[in-house]
Design brief:
CATH architecture of one domain in chain B: Orthogonal Bundle
CATH superfamily of one domain in chain A: MetI-like
CATH architecture of one domain in chain A: Orthogonal Bundle
Keywords (chain A): Cell membrane, Membrane, Sugar transport, Transmembrane, Transmembrane helix, Transport
Radius of gyration of chain A: 24 Å
CATH topology of one domain in chain A: MetI-like fold
CATH topology of one domain in chain B: MetI-like fold
CATH superfamily of one domain in chain B: MetI-like
Number of helices of chain A: 14
Largest sheet of chain A: 2 strands, antiparallel
Shape of chain A: flat
Structural class of chain B: mainly alpha
Number of strands of chain B: 1
Distance between the termini of chain A: 19 Å
InterPro entries (chain A): ABC_transporter_permease, MetI-like, MetI-like_sf
Order of helices and strands of chain A: HEHEEHHHHHHHHHHHH
Family (chain A): Belongs to the binding-protein-dependent transport system permease family.
Low-confidence stretches of chain A: 1-14
Order of helices and strands of chain B: HHHHHEHHHHHHHHH
Helix content of chain B: over 70%
Membrane topology (chain A): Multi-pass membrane protein
Protein name (chain A): Multiple sugar transport system permease protein/raffinose/stachyose/melibiose transport system permease protein
Strand order of the largest sheet of chain A: 2-3
Oligomer: heterodimer
Strand content of chain B: under 5%
Number of strands of chain A: 3
Strand content of chain A: under 5%
Number of helices of chain B: 14
CATH class of one domain in chain B: Mainly Alpha
Radius of gyration of chain B: 24 Å
Largest sheet of chain B: none
Largest interface: A-B, 123 and 116 residues
Chain lengths: ~300, ~290
């Protein structure tokens, strides 16, 4: 996004109009134009984000506002040392990230590179890989559940294990369900990455490839030494998306089994502590804050690159 | 040399790989479609992995009539339309104000908006839930007496989340527009609002179309906020309601498959009608999944 739009913009933007030269009506118009979106953003995004930090240091049943008690670091202490699903969730989030970064993202890049040339039927292939991008992760979970079913699903039937003791309950068996869920997530993620890279590849100056060819570079060398580095802005976006998607991962495991039994993820643990009978707002908030702190890394990384050269 | 080699070389390996991948990619969807087309009775008799028996659309009809898909899809429309409209309205105003006026806070605000969209929604969940639950509202406005279990709760949170993203994209787009366009209007005495509404906004039409398409699909696909805020099943949008169907008809995979496909159809229609805009939107701004 910044890639395609920022670069020419920077050269063309002239000094913008200073505020003091504006008339009263203009100032009122601007106040509304800035004020309403900013208020919405402050009240519904930043205030809750800060309140999460506050609530994470309290004990509260979520019902009576006057019964919030300070708890210090007790929630964090409990999560780290006693809360059983926490460390599995951390491990699963790391595995999720490694899987997306090591398999799903490179697969999307590979598809984009293969489909970028003058390949017959490229558009048809693109559409096929792109369909899952339009499907919500929740629905992806449902569709793959039909596919993964123990006795009635396609996979076990194709493997010939359906109806036998060897049949695997892909979403139910804690030994394999994380892998099964990550494959389903890859179904969507790879298509997404493919589309972004297809756009990125179109933006690479053909002269670069020609120059590399004249210098005697082969296809692989041209790609890894010239084309891939030239797509740096897209690469940054892909890295950020991959990490953020991993931290947000929730829908698919929640649809499968609410994020339990081998599918614990930080994003799902937050929700488990907020809804349902045992509302423990402090624990849920502390988990959310842990998620927030981890997210700040990629967010800041992205922002410094997107806004780094602004005045 | 390398480029000619690339085009001349027979691509059988590439095609074989892509064909294999395509089959794997389509298999879950085709399987769902095949399951949905068969009556429950046939699959009980012959097994799900079989050929034969009847094929008809009864499961779709059952999902529509018995499982309330009409209600869920209506709920989705009630949530998606205002969210997308207000998101674009507010973000285009904000983007205009931060790109066309020199002001100390414009870049920090833009950064705050962009960062807000990148936060995991879970981070905001507990306080928003508590605020919505404890906000006393008259019963004529909300039958829960609070913002919980109202469409508005989902609409405003989605709005707030998406405004950051759309502002970022539109600001980039507006920066690329030549300042000369508004200079002329300024000389003619057009105020801020007029320059925004009559000059800049029409020029942003391609970006607005792309964002609208993208946002329709994002909001329609949102699972998280309705799950958190909407407590009565008949108010859920379809993406979140599919979870209930899954529990309700635990072993009737034919009905579940039909429900999944019904849920998918609106996104497919939007995509087919607005394909160009959708892909443009994804590549215009891509920080959101």
């Amino acid at each position: 996004m910044t890639a395609t739009l920022d670069a020419p913009a920077r050269d063309r933007v002239r000094p913008r109009r200073p505020l003091r030269t504006l008339s009263i009506t203009d100032k009122i118009a601007l106040a509304i134009m800035v004020g309403v979106p900013t208020l919405v953003q402050l009240l519904l995004v930043w205030l809750p984000a800060l309140a999460s930090i506050g609530l994470s240091f309290t004990r509260w049943n979520g019902i009576d506002l006057d019964r919030i008690e300070p708890a210090g670091l007790a929630n964090y202490d409990y999560i780290v040392s006693l809360y059983p699903p926490f460390w599995p969730a951390v491990a699963h989030n790391v595995i999720w990230l490694l899987f997306l970064a090591g398999i799903a993202t490179p697969l999307g890049l590979l598809l984009a590179v293969l489909l970028d040339g003058k390949l017959a039927g490229s558009r048809i292939y693109q559409s096929v890989f792109f369909v899952p991008v339009m499907i919500s992760l929740a629905l992806t979970g449902v569709i793959w559940q039909l596919f993964y079913q123990r006795d009635n699903g396609l996979l076990n039937n194709v493997l010939g294990t359906a109806g036998t003791p060897a049949a695997i309950d892909w979403f139910g068996d804690p030994d394999v369900n994380l892998l099964a869920a990550m494959v389903a997530a890859t179904w969507r993620h790879a298509g997404y990455v493919m589309i972004l890279y297809l756009a990125g590849l179109k933006g690479v100056d053909p002269a670069l490839r020609e120059a590399a060819a004249i210098d005697g570079a082969n296809g692989w060398q041209t790609f890894f030494r010239v084309v891939f580095p030239a797509m740096r802005p897209i690469n940054i976006i892909i890295v950020v998306i991959t990490i953020i998607e991993c931290l947000r991962a929730f829908d698919i495991v929640y649809v499968i089994n609410r994020g339990t039994n081998g599918l614990e993820l930080l994003g799902a643990l937050v929700v488990q502590n907020l809804v349902g009978e045992g509302q423990v707002i402090g624990i849920g908030s502390a988990l959310a804050v842990i998620l927030l702190v981890v997210s700040l890394g990629p967010i800041i990384f992205y922002l410094t690159r997107a806004f780094g050269r602004e005045d | 040399m390398a480029t000619t080699a690339r085009t001349i070389r027979p691509r059988w390996g590439t095609h074989l790989f892509l064909l294999t991948m395509s089959v794997m990619w389509l298999a879950p969807l085709l399987w769902a479609a095949y399951t949905a087309l068969r009556p429950y009775g046939s699959t009980q008799r012959l097994g799900y992995f079989s050929v034969g028996g009847e094929y008809n659309l009864d499961n779709f009809a059952r999902a529509w009539t018995q499982s309330g898909f009409l209600t869920y899809l209506t709920n989705s429309v009630i949530i998606v339309v205002p969210t997308v409209f207000f998101t674009l309205a507010l973000s285009s105003m904000m983007a205009y104000a931060v790109t066309r006026v020199r002001w100390a806070l414009s870049i920090p605000l833009l950064i705050a908006f962009t960062a807000g969209n990148l936060l995991p929604p879970q981070v905001l969940a507990a306080p928003l839930f508590a605020i919505f639950k404890n906000l006393r509202l008259p019963y004529w406005f909300s039958d829960s007496g609070s913002l919980l279990n109202t469409y508005i709760s989902v609409i405003i949170v989605n709005l707030a989340f998406q405004v950051g993203f759309c502002t970022f994209v539109l600001a980039n787009y507006m920066k690329a527009l030549s300042p000369d366009l508004t200079e002329a209007a300024l000389v003619d005495g057009a105020g801020v609002w007029r320059r925004y509404w009559s000059i800049v906004l029409p020029l942003c039409r391609p970006a607005l179309a792309a964002l609208a398409t993208l946002e329709i699909i994002f909001i329609y696909n949102d699972f998280f906020w309705p799950l958190l805020f909407i407590t009565s099943g008949d108010r859920l949008p379809v993406t979140t309601a599919i979870k209930n169907l899954q529990g309700q008809f635990f072993s009737d995979y034919n009905l579940l498959a039909a429900g999944a496909l019904i849920t998918l159809i609106p996104t497919l229609i939007v995509y087919l009608l607005l394909q160009r805009h959708f892909v443009a939107g994804l590549t215009l701004g891509s920080s959101k999944g």
